């Protein structure tokens, strides 16, 4: 008999078909009464397919599912899952690292290039016919600048490689020094002073909540740009709005926000920001690989094989 997996969000069509060949899948996002689905199938559900942008996996949800064994997250970040509650119940959690690294690093670079070279504005300048009235205002060079990366993990390193190819000096901050050629800053504020572009690529969650506040933005300075592809929670959004409003920083390129999909109205009207709707991993190729990795983890778990990409729980 097929095992039952509660899917909070869909995979791409092909991967969804593959998942449904191997499992009895409860499509929670299609249900008008999700609570009834969970209640009616509470004893059957042994796996959850969760996503980085979904409703999350709370202790309450886990408590409602007495036979839950595995949470397979579609995404590398897992700040939407109550890991402590999972650990208490010996529920294993997996994610989808590495397969999304290149695409997400590309988004960091496109935000950096876009905001500094005013690419969105340049496109509009041509489309609305303003070119006939004169040249566009000048933009900011990238070459020769310093890029400070917060979190030199898989994505941070891929950003570093790309930024170096644009002839920038790369420096980084994280809790631990990495085996890397780039200069390490233990102190985030010191790095912000040294950086022209501050790129956030660290994990989300309680530890990094509001790591970037007015003090750090002030240290980045009036010529500095903030780029965030990590999580909205890493930035104190009210402080960022003040810094952008007062031109304490030059601009920002943002893929993630404090309360997605809500973006502050004031930010939407600002011309010194470039905004994208959390699209780091949003390509057909990468989303397909992420879906396959979710399936492979679920299959490995129920076949009694080692998990491909388990999240390490605190010891
Ligand atoms: P990773 O390899 O685990 O790297 C995470 C990095 O964050 C590590 O190098 C870690 O270094 C650093 N870090 C953790 N806590 C920190 C802190 N308090 N201060 C400074 N640095 C800290 O993960 P990844 O694959 O690169 O992904 C990074 C994050 O990107 C994910 O967690 C996710 O939230 C985000 N992401 C966003 C998108 C998108 O669509 N925008 C797509 C994919 C991923 P230390 O342990 O040494 O501090």
């Amino acid at each position: 008999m097929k095992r039952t997996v509660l899917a909070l969000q869909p995979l791409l069509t092909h991967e969804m078909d593959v998942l449904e060949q191997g499992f009895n899948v409860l499509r929670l996002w299609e249900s008008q009464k999700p609570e009834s689905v969970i209640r009616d199938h509470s004893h059957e559900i042994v796996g959850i397919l969760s996503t980085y942008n979904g409703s999350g996996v709370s202790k309450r949800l886990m408590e409602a599912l007495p036979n839950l064994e595995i949470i397979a997250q579609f995404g590398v970040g897992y700040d939407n899952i109550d890991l402590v509650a999972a650990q208490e119940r010996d529920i294993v959690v997996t994610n989808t690292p590495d397969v999304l690294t290149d695409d997400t690093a590309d988004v960091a670079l496109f935000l950096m290039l876009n905001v500094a070279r005013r690419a969105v504005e340049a496109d509009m300048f041509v489309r609305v016919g303003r070119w006939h009235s004169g040249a566009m205002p000048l933009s900011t060079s990238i070459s020769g600048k310093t890029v400070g990366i917060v979190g030199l993990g898989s994505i941070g390193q891929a950003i570093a490689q790309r930024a170096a190819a644009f002839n920038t000096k790369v420096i980084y901050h994280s809790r631990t020094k990495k085996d890397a050629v780039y200069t390490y800053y233990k102190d985030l504020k010191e790095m912000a002073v040294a950086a022209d572009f501050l790129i956030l690529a660290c994990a989300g969650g309680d530890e990094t909540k509001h790591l970037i506040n007015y003090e750090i933005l002030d240290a980045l300075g009036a010529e500095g740009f903030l780029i965030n592809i990590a999580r909205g929670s890493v930035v104190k959004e009210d402080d960022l709005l003040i810094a952008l409003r007062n031109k304490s920083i030059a601009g920002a390129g943002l893929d993630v926000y404090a309360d997605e999909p809500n973006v502050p109205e004031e930010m939407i009207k600002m011309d010194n920001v470039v905004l994208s709707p959390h699209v780091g991993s949003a390509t057909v190729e990468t989303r397909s690989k992420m879906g396959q990795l979710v399936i492979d983890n679920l299959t490995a778990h129920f076949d009694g094989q080692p998990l491909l990409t388990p999240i390490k729980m605190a010891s």
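The first helix runs from residue 13 to 22. DSSP finds twelve helices and twelve strands in the chain.
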